[in-house]
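anyone seen this seq b4? input:
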Amino acid sequence: MATTESFLVPDVPDVDPNTFGHDSGAVALTDPTHDIDGDGVLDTQTFDAGDAVVIASDLDSDGDADHLTMIHEDGEYASWEFRRDGDGVVHWQQTDGGTLGNG
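predicted toks r here
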């Protein structure tokens, strides 16, 4: 029998792929659904954000994404890593980007 819980939509982080960048703040993951590193802990959440699909992973289990990859409808993509400098300042650093396919 279907219940209302069967139809709940997971809570997704507030990420705008069109404005995301170096100074974007932490991205909290509330409903990870995949275990990409095979340790038995759900650490990755995939969701739609505007014209892009976002894959966000929290590999250190602190509740915030450590890695984000955004893939836009036109094939453009960007991968980012959350970093903390020696003085404690946090920022995102782009680690990869380009166009998928023949684009």
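The beta strands are 44-49, 52-57, 67-72, 76-84, 90-99. The chain has a mean pLDDT of 87. kinda curious what u guys think
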